[in-house]
Amino acid sequence: MNAIGPAMAPDFTIEQNWEGYGEEEHAIWRLLFERQERLLAGRACHEYLDGLGALGVAACGIPDFRRLSEVLDRTTGWRIVAVPGLVPDAVFFDFLARRRFPSTCFIRRRDQLDYLQEPDVFHDIFGHVPLLMNPVFADYMQAYGQGGLKALGLGHLERLARLYWYTVEFGLIATAEGLRIYGSGILSSAGESVYCLEDPRPQRLGFDLRRVMRTRYHIDRYQDTYFVIDGFDQLFEATRPDFTPVYREVSKLPDLEPDQVIAQDRRFCPPWSLPNVGEKNGPQLSSAQV
Ligand code: HBI
Ligand code: FE
């Protein structure tokens, strides 16, 4: 550490300095961890819960990235690198493309337990890292990083960022038992992990790549729309092709508001057993309008 903060290397990485965390910081981790562990039983997908268990991320305190990286590396070849906060898009994508997950080190304060706009170590580690233990999801994240570098070059970053937002950060997955959470932004939020599944207000729509790329999102409140995948294979397959023609197609269509519904949408309605195709309630637009 220097007077300004942790010394940053040219690649934006820093030292986690695990030994430097104080008791209060570990106590905040424990509070957040225990609360989410309780809430996520029956709400998070089993791939996430399995990953959390296998990683050995525990309630006891903020994990040491060196230990987590060893377990991750052995399982899927990913490692965690410490960064001071949001890093530039190109740097972020480059890390993912090389199977490095950039994580912040600081933890939110006690008066921010329920809401923090920027990522902290609880969001980055508890929210993102367990799914990187899953081989299919691990490959999806790497492909996303490679796609990001390409999207930057093509000037379509915004569309790719929407895909990340509505999958990696706020995605739901349909299982035989019902809808489950896999998005990290939800997994690290007590309020949203209940809201996304149980509140009648947000809509849950079947995942469609072009639809997602057209949909704006809010960064400062719970989502109006969640997109539901059938499995990680679907996500990986949908994003395998080159996006160049997809971007071209999507850029001819208007963007959609976060709460908008269009005729093609497959809506999931409680109790989440089956998608309800062409459901009529809610603001529906004819396909001519969109
Ligand atoms: N940096 N540390 C960090 N974490 C992120 O999630 C992140 C970032 N930089 C850019 C970024 N995300 C997004 O803007 C991209 O997904 C588009
Ligand atoms: Fe995140």
Characterise the protein shown here.
The structure is a single chain. With 290 residues, this protein is α/β, with parallel strands linked by helices. The chain has a single domain, classed as Phenylalanine Hydroxylase, CATH 1.10.800. It contains twelve helices and eight strands. The protein has helices at residues 23-40, 46-55, 65-76, 89-97, 121-128, 135-154, 157-169, 184-187, 190-198, 209-214, 232-238, 244-250, and strands at 79-82, 100-103, 172-175, 178-181, 203-206, 225-229, 266-268, 275-277. The strands form three sheets. The chain has a four-stranded mixed β-sheet. A two-stranded parallel ribbon has the order 1-2. Strands 7-8 form a two-stranded antiparallel sheet. Helix 6 packs antiparallel against helix 7. It is globular, with a radius of gyration of 19 Å. Residues 83, 86-87, 89, 92, 102, 119, 161, 164 line the site of 7,8-dihydrobiopterin (HBI).
